[in-house]
Amino acid sequence: MTGPDKAVPDSSARDIDELIGRMTLDEKAALTAGVDAWHTFAIERLGIPPVRLTDGPNGARGATGPDYLSVTPSVCIPSASALGATWDPDVVSAASAAVARQARDKSARVLLAPTVNLHRHPLWGRNFECFSEDPFLSGKLAVAFISGVQAQGVIATVKHLVCNETEFERRTSSSEVDERTLRELYLLPFEMAVREGDVLALMTSYNRVNGRYVPDNERFLSEILRGEWGFRGLVMTDWSAGVTTIEAARGGLDLEMPGPARAFGPALARAVREGEVDEAHLDDKVRRLLRTFDEIGALADPVDKSEAPLDRPEDRAAARRAASEAIVLLTNDGVLPLSGLAKVAVIGPNAELPAVMGGGSARVKPHYSVSPLEALRQRLGFGTEVVFEAGCALATSAAEAGATASAGAGASEHAIARAVEAARQADVAIVVVGTNDYWESEGVDRETMDLPGAQSELVERVIAANPRSVVVVNSGAPVSLPFADDAAALVQCWFGGQELGNALADVLVGDADPAGRLPVTLPERIEHTPAFGNFPGESGQVRYGEGLLMGYRWYEARHLPVRFPFGHGLSYTSFQIKAVRTSASRLVRDGVLSVDVDVVNTGKRPGSEVVQLYVAPPGGGTAPPGGRLRPAKQLKGFAKVRLGPGEATTVRLELSARSFAYYDVEDAAWPVLLSRLGGPHHDPETGALHRSKAGWYVDPGTYQLHVGRSSADIAHIVEVDVEGGPEPLPATERPG
Ligand code: GLC
After folding, report:
1. Which residue has the CA at smallest separation from atom 12 of ligand 1?
2. For ligand 1, atom 5, which residue shows the shortest CA distance?
3. Candidates 235, 361, 364: which one to mutate for ligand 1, based on the most atoms within 8 Å of Cβ?
4. Which of 249, 411, 519, 610 is the most exposed place for a label (fewest CB within 10 A)?
């Protein structure tokens, strides 16, 4: 078994500088690019083996065949939007550790995960692969994911830095985004992954940011990533991303993937020989690469890279727990949990063929997959008759999509009619609809939130035939829910991995409480969404015109209705957030504020609750003249609790200066502009704020702490005075 023999690397750490000193220029340059799609260059004479890298966020794919698919099977954990719905770092760490164990089984030492881009727009193809619309939740779960992976002796790779939230023209488009939005939203999960998670690798994005490719961008990769955040690991490109030798050599890039080399390798050696790149820059790259590999023991690995993936019980258990903890009960008139039923009609294409993951580089070949139909038959089988009707087909390829479209309504009418009749004759109908890895995939964005094919019609007609209908949405990102108010219960189960069916059955029959909470707002209409009109971009640009007001920040600032709010999720029991206490009524400049929250299970069943804490600055949601726009409130703390009936507990959340801070930019033009104004008659508006130094600032004032069960269900608001100050916070201030 090639499982993790030790998470702690060999004590015989190599003397990296001595190794570098023995290398030729060509050998050093060769190490800065892959030798093939999945391996780094080996230098046998110096005992440096190739290091294998593997995707991805929901499974260790290992070597791939010609169709880019796994050669050997993998444990398939829930996709990241499902992990985001768990709101539970421990659950996420256990799941990512299972993926890392499988990576080691496949002789891989670098896992290309987690993906921490944000759910900026519901139609982005890779939302399933990312945790949330909120950067704080994304960052905290990324830290947990990284911890689970690196403890197994595998390097985690946080990706894709940055503003990679569109598939359309992803290799050329430029994400146009202001500095405050960059810092407070899109860079924050990466900052947390580095400063809290000590992630050892980072992957740059395909897209440009404000006109420049990130691998060439010294400001991102040297000034911010290494200079401000203290990143000590290695930086790699995305696969075949655009790279230029000299800028990338100076810009902090270490590894060009995949091989064979194009901009690095021999081209970099030539640039050094021709004096265009200082050899010291090359030595820095080689040093970072080798030190990082050596830290996890990869330099002591054998040269041959066998694959012997194990289907471990503990990995199955971690996958099932994560899938169950992710399931969000959106509505329930009491039909759930199921009990005492003579006949259940299981309906829908995804009941038999569930979407366990999204499409693209995150795909793996699961060891197995359990469908909702199989699992419900097993769970309900004794004493309950279970009938199945697909009702309609869900295309799994372009060819099928074309065939379905051209076949027209007639083809599905018969199938829908059968399903409607089955629902009519049953005590309860369970309709499992959604998307799959064809409709939600890397490389393509969706064009509508509507469920593909005839699924919405199927759901509405089934509900009309049997009001005791439970609708289960099996998607990675938001879909239109026109039937939300008509279903007896509505459940979002995400792309739940190989154990999706068992986890869903556990929740539907009440063996597990629905413990998930929405990591993303479910909008009523696509036209209400923050990026509407600025997605997927045009003329080579994606304008992040919504700025800071992305996700729930948008809907709250504009008082727009939503279908279901960020953080929402019901339980089979009931909870009360009884009291909130702060360790002080005033937060001094570099202090820490503890917030104790008393929670009690007031119902008759065990269940889970997610306590959420949002910070509301004075004047939040507006931008007074001369002031700065601040979202009305932002998530800055959360904790998941599991309580038996009548049980109570107190959770402690910690806030620090960054919990109250906003990023401000240096207004370098202001002094020049002032000088042009001259004389008393042109004094600038009093009170206007033009800072001479960029950084994180805390304005003094009275802030509100909103504590509740979702962004829209706040149980308590307490006030705290925050000292703040005119100077930016020290760079050492904890980010999350
Ligand atoms: C890609 C993806 C990246 C993945 C890499 C290797 O195109 O953007 O996430 O890790 O290729 O498959």
Report:
1. 361
2. 239
3. 361
4. 411
Query: How is 443-480 classified by DSSP, letter by letter?
Result: TB--S-SSPSTTHHHHHHHHHHH-SSEEEEEE-SS---
Query: Six-digit token pair at 703?
Result: 């802030």
Cα-to-centroid distance, 56 and ligand 1 (Å):
8
Find where tokens 């940055």 sit: 162
Which residues 6+ apart lie within 8 Å of 443 measured at CB? Answer: 125, 167, 170, 359, 360
- Confirm whether 485 is a catalytic residue: no
- Structure token digits, residue 461: 């007609």
Which atom of ligand 1 has the smallest separation from the CA of 113?
A: 10
- Which is nearest to 14 in space by CA: 234, 280, 254, 293? 293
DSSP code string of 219-241: IIIIIIIIIIT---SEEEPPTT-
d(C-alpha 517, C-alpha 511), whole Å: 18
Torsion sign over Cα 418, 424, 426, 428: positive
For residues 119 and 133, the answer to whether their CB atoms sit within 8 Å is yes
Best of 239, 357, 444 for a ligand 1 pocket test (most atoms within 8 Å of beta carbon) = 239
In which region does residue 546 sit, left (phi positive, over 0), alpha (psi from -120 to 50) or beta (all else)? alpha
pLDDT tens-place string over residues 481-518 = 999 999 999 999 999 999 999 999 999 999 999 999 99
Nearest to 143 by CA among 103, 186, 179, 188: 188
To test the pocket of ligand 1, the residue of 110, 112, 214, 236 to mutate (highest count of ligand atoms within 8 Å of its CB) is 112
Q: What is the pLDDT of residues 399-446, one digit of tens each?
A: 888 887 777 666 679 999 999 999 999 999 999 999 999 999 999 999
Output the pTM of the full model.
0.97
- Tens of pLDDT along 544-553? 999 999 999 9
Q: Name the burial class of residue 376, with classes exposed (0-12), middle (13-18) and buried (19+) by CB atoms within 10 angstroms of its CB.
A: buried
Q: How many residues can be counted in the chain?
A: 736
Of ligand 1's atoms, which has the minimum distance to the CA of residue 160? 9
The single residue listed with the structure tokens 């600038």 is 684
Q: What whole-number distance in Å separates Cα of residue 473 and Cα of residue 522? A: 12
Locus of tokens 């690995």:
301
- 421 alpha carbon to ligand 1 midpoint, in Å? 45
What is the pLDDT averaged over residues 55-67? 91
Measured CA to CA, the distance from residue 271 to residue 276 in angstroms comes to: 5
User: Chain-centre distance of CA 405, in angstroms?
Assistant: 33
Give the mean pLDDT of the chain.
94
130: helix, coil or strand? Answer: strand
The torsion angles phi and psi of 447, rounded to 5 degrees, stand at -105, -10
Residue of 55, 88, 134, 238 marked catalytic: 238
Cβ pair 653, 613 in contact under 8 A: yes
